[in-house]
Design a protein that fits this description.
With 249 residues, the protein is α/β, with parallel strands linked by helices. Helices cover 27% and strands 29% of the residues. The strands form 3 sheets. It has a 9-stranded mixed beta sheet with strand order 11-10-9-12-8-1-6-7-13, sandwiched between helices. A two-stranded antiparallel ribbon has the order 2-5. It has a two-stranded antiparallel sheet with strand order 3-4. The N and C termini lie far apart (62 Å).
């Protein structure tokens, strides 16, 4: 069984980007980037499935410029068998990303398509759902547990009031949540070997996909500063403050 994992070369989750006061947009031009944490969870899960003998080949796919190769090498070091870069410098929105991934899925014919539930930075959380709709296959979102069989996969997904287990006929799209697994520590020799492996490059133009944006971000702003916490001396003082704030009447 073949599995395809989408890997986004995203803003490092430890970094706080700034907003350009001139353009009103988030400035990520010089910001450190790394593998999107949710996508790393997807990759870890497929590697575990391969170690169990349930997956035969893992294809890691990233979209972006030359720097996205760093995330694909990370995927190789974790255990991916092949790496593919869809080369483009365009600023892509979820629909365009889903269309590009659809073209690769149709070419590779994987039974499992994994994405993180969202990408840190934009936090759209839309690409997996759009991709499943374009492919006409089932989707399990926010997966925190999986049980793969020959023709179907059971997905434990996190919902508002707990968890829900659904069964999907293969092929299927899975978007992974934080509690699915903890990605393995990558050893230095694996990273060194990953640098020597081949990354296949396909121009986004070759795939014949319309990448035109469907919405425009007008501006961005920092969230309003919240007042700091206040320590009270006793319960009566707490009650008085809550009444003044009209929390209690």
């Amino acid at each position: 069984m073949k599995a395809l994992v989408a890997i986004k070369h995203a803003v490092d989750y430890n970094v706080k980007p700034n907003i350009d006061p001139v353009t009103g947009q988030v400035d990520i031009a010089q910001v450190k980037k790394a593998v999107n944490p949710f996508d790393e969870i997807s990759l870890e899960e497929t590697v575990r499935l391969k170690e169990q003998g349930k997956v035969s080949e893992i294809i890691a796919v990233s979209i972006g410029g030359d720097d996205a190769k760093d995330s694909l090498r990370h995927a190789y070091a974790m255990g991916a068998d092949r790496a593919l870069l869809i080369a483009t410098n365009a600023e892509l929105q979820p629909l365009a990303v889903a269309k590009l991934l659809k073209a690769i899925v149709e070419r590779e014919q994987p039974q499992l398509i994994f994405l993180g539930k969202q990408a840190v930075g934009e936090d759209y959380g839309q690409t997996g759902q759009i991709l499943a709709a374009l492919l006409g296959v089932g989707i399990g979102t926010f997966a925190s547990g999986l049980q793969l069989e020959t023709e179907h996969i059971d997905v434990i997904r996190e919902i508002e009031k707990g968890t829900q287990t659904i069964r999907l006929t293969l092929p299927a799209v899975i978007t992974t949540d934080l509690r699915l697994n903890e990605p393995r520590f990558i050893k230095l020799p694996n990273l060194m070997m990953a640098k020597k492996k081949v990354i296949e490059i396909i121009s986004a133009h070759e795939l014949g996909v319309d990448l035109a944006p469907r919405f425009t971000v007008l501006n961005a702003s920092e969230p309003a500063n919240k007042p700091g916490a206040v320590q009270v001396g006793n319960v009566q003082e707490l009650v008085e403050k809550l009444r003044r704030a009209e929390v209690l009447v």
